[in-house]
Structure formats: structure tokens, C-alpha cells
Amino acid sequence: MTSFKRKNTALIISGMIMGGIISAGVFAYFSAAHSTTDVSPANKTESRKVLFWYDPMYPNTRFEKPGKSPFMDMDLVPKYADGDADASGAPGIRIDPTQSQNLGLKTEPVRRGPLQYKQTFPANVSYNDYQFVILQARSPGFIEKVYPLTLGDKVQKGTPLVELTIPEWVEAQGEYLLLLETGGTGTQIDGILERLRLAGMAEEDIRRLKSSRKIQTRFTLKAPIDGVITAFDLRAGMNIGKDNVVAKIQGMDPVWISAAVPESIAWMIKDAAQFAISVPAWPGKAFAIKKWLLLPSVDATTRTLQLRLLVDNPDEALKPGMNAYLKLNSESQPMLLIPTKALIDSGDEQRVIAVDEQGRFVPKQVEVFHESQGMTAIRAGISEGEKVVASGLFLIDSEANISGALDRMRATAHSQQGDHP
């Protein structure tokens, strides 16, 4: 009996010892597991070393402690010693989504479409030099009468200007009549008439000579076209040489309207349908463009081309010297377009900040073609459908400058270009 009790006591003690050992092992196992799983990303973040705090709006100002920014109503952001926690060697930087949203960072997709160009240029009305005549007597003589005309007067074709006596014409007429009376040959007679034409005698006066067979001593010079007198400075009793100008007359229909346009948009000017003319003196009035021409030379100072339009002016509403405005409305062939505000232009290069598949902000160098209406056409450097930062570039710039990421991104981009020639 005593032996049985001893055996039971030994079994109970052994069970207790084994239970304690097992409990200790289980406790140690779960304690280790618990300590491992309790290290959350937040705890990891707390273990990172903070160099300083800063306001993304004023990245060059550093603070030793966290808190509210003295510049903006927002919390200061820590700058860690290890930089980007998820740095993988890829070019670019990552910005906290909450911070991006608070500062209004927005992206726009790269799209393909025509670049719209709408611009209004100052212009001016001038005489049409295609309708410009200089009237001369072609032979020396005397001014017998000047009709009451002066600069700026409108004249119709055939309006008399001055009456002249020209001895050379009188002498040639006498030779002509003498040949007729003495039986001169047809060649001789025609030669005299041709000499009168070359000396400046009007065809009307030659016909009168042939029909009347009388010498004319006074001749009337008349306006050869409709227009405005721009030079006329003769007086009765004056002598006139064969080189003296009797009058200058310029036509008024059509007129020229000229404007200086940038040489960079010459490729966008295609036809007259792109133009619209407005004149402050005649608000709301439409003017028909007959033809247009880009003059061949460029102004070396302003880098502009002269655009000349030939405009109908039947009612002479357009006066030379008037101010006008030329509206150009054109569009290009489809090309890659981004918002102009997405472009970073340093002078030496143009870049955009693109968003890659991992959500990182990556700078890309681009080739710019042209800019208009808030959009910029890109030749190369990005693809259709990519997203670029269009608002909040200062945030990307401040983050990149603080961490030195921009230099690293450029270096990585250049090395990748070197690996793939």
C-alpha cells in the first residue's frame, strides 16, 4: 500500500514537471512570434532617423522639431536620413498621396490632336502699288493751264490734269501733214506717228490729228486710272522737262492690308480662309480677301515676316493709313500635346515630370515643337497616353531638391540612354 502511494506521488510530480516545461516552451514561442508581428510599418517609420522637418511650400527652411508650419496651415514634413524608404534604384521620387492632394498636384494625359493657333495681329491699310502710275510729258514744253486739283483729290480715269504746249509734238505734226501732201510713203507716215507715240503724245490726240489734218498746239494730259493724287506740284506758266513728273496717282480698289507675324508660325499659314479682318473705323464690317502673300524676307530685329493681303475696297471704306486687325485662326496636323504649364524649361533643356506605373514621378527630357492656346506640341521624349504633372510642379521640384533626387534622376536617365544607343 505504501509502495502504491509512492508510485502515484512520483507520477503526479513528473506530470507537473513536464507540464511546466511544455508551458514554458509554448510561452517562449508565442512571445517571439508576438514580438515579430508587432513591428508594424508605423514602428519601422518611428525607428527611422529624422534629419529635420520642412514645409514643402518653403523647402529651403528647416526646422529642428515637428509642428505646424509658420508659413502655411499644415504640418511640417520630416526629412529622413535614408531618403526614400522604398528606394529601388529606379529614377524618380515618391510623394505622399495626402501631401500631393493637399497641395493640388494634378496630372494630365499626353494626347494626340491638332494644335490650335488663334492670334490677332495689328495691321495697317496702305495703297495698292499694283495700281500706281507716274504721269510724265516725255518731252519738254510749257504749262498753259493747271486744273484745280491737289494732293489727296480723287480722280476718275480720263480726268484732265494739265494743258501743255510741246514744240517737239508741234514739229512732228507738221512733218506728218507735209508727207501726206507730198505723197510720202506709208512707211514714212507711220514712222512719224510712231515717233509721236514714243514722245508721249496721247493716242486720242494722234487720232484727232489723222482725222482733222490740223496741227494741235495745246495738249491735255489726263489721269490714266481711277485713284487718288499723291504727287502734283505744277503751276501755270512753268517750263517742264521730259523727266519732270506731272502727277502720281494710286488706286484705291483693292488696297493692301499688311501685318507682321512671327516667323515661327509661317508653316501654319495655308489659305485666305484662315484670316479675318476687322477695322476699328468700321466695326462689324466684313472685308473680302482676294489674295495673300508672305514676303520673302524676315525682319532681322523682330524676327517677323510681313504678311500682305489684297483686299477688295469697292466703296473705298478702307483708307490708306487706317489701323486694322488681322485675326489668324489655324490648326496643325495631329501631334502629341501637353498643357504648357506641364513644361519645365531651364533654357538649356525642356523637361516634363511623368508618372510611371509604380506611381513614381520621373523627369523626361522632351523636344518642343510649338506652343499655342495653353498647349505645347512635343516632337519626342514622351508617348501618347502617358501622364505628366500639370499642376503642383513646385512640389515635385521642392521634394527633388531637398532629397537630391533630381540629380540622381537625371544621372540615371542619362546612363540608361547610354546603355541603349
Automatic annotation (TrEMBL):
<feature type="domain" description="CusB-like beta-barrel">
    <location>
        <begin position="254"/>
        <end position="331"/>
    </location>
</feature>
<feature type="domain" description="CusB-like barrel-sandwich hybrid">
    <location>
        <begin position="133"/>
        <end position="250"/>
    </location>
</feature>
<dbReference type="Pfam" id="PF25869">
    <property type="entry name" value="3HB_CusB"/>
</dbReference>
<dbReference type="GO" id="GO:0046914">
    <property type="term" value="F:transition metal ion binding"/>
</dbReference>
<keyword id="KW-0472">Membrane</keyword>
<keyword id="KW-0406">Ion transport</keyword>
<keyword id="KW-0813">Transport</keyword>
<dbReference type="InterPro" id="IPR058792">
    <property type="entry name" value="Beta-barrel_RND_2"/>
</dbReference>
<keyword id="KW-0732">Signal</keyword>
<keyword id="KW-0812">Transmembrane</keyword>
<protein>
    <submittedName>
        <fullName>Efflux RND transporter periplasmic adaptor subunit</fullName>
    </submittedName>
</protein>
<dbReference type="InterPro" id="IPR058790">
    <property type="entry name" value="BSH_CusB"/>
</dbReference>
<dbReference type="InterPro" id="IPR058791">
    <property type="entry name" value="3HB_CusB"/>
</dbReference>
<feature type="domain" description="Heavy metal binding">
    <location>
        <begin position="52"/>
        <end position="79"/>
    </location>
</feature>
<dbReference type="InterPro" id="IPR051909">
    <property type="entry name" value="MFP_Cation_Efflux"/>
</dbReference>
<keyword id="KW-1133">Transmembrane helix</keyword>
<dbReference type="Pfam" id="PF19335">
    <property type="entry name" value="HMBD"/>
</dbReference>
<dbReference type="GO" id="GO:0022857">
    <property type="term" value="F:transmembrane transporter activity"/>
</dbReference>
<dbReference type="GO" id="GO:0016020">
    <property type="term" value="C:membrane"/>
</dbReference>
<dbReference type="GO" id="GO:0015679">
    <property type="term" value="P:plasma membrane copper ion transport"/>
</dbReference>
<dbReference type="Pfam" id="PF25919">
    <property type="entry name" value="BSH_CusB"/>
</dbReference>
<dbReference type="Pfam" id="PF25954">
    <property type="entry name" value="Beta-barrel_RND_2"/>
</dbReference>
<dbReference type="GO" id="GO:0060003">
    <property type="term" value="P:copper ion export"/>
</dbReference>
<comment type="similarity">
    <text>Belongs to the membrane fusion protein (MFP) (TC 8.A.1) family.</text>
</comment>
<dbReference type="InterPro" id="IPR045800">
    <property type="entry name" value="HMBD"/>
</dbReference>
<feature type="transmembrane region" description="Helical">
    <location>
        <begin position="12"/>
        <end position="32"/>
    </location>
</feature>
<dbReference type="GO" id="GO:0030288">
    <property type="term" value="C:outer membrane-bounded periplasmic space"/>
</dbReference>
<feature type="domain" description="CusB-like three alpha-helical bundle">
    <location>
        <begin position="168"/>
        <end position="217"/>
    </location>
</feature>
<dbReference type="InterPro" id="IPR006143">
    <property type="entry name" value="RND_pump_MFP"/>
</dbReference>
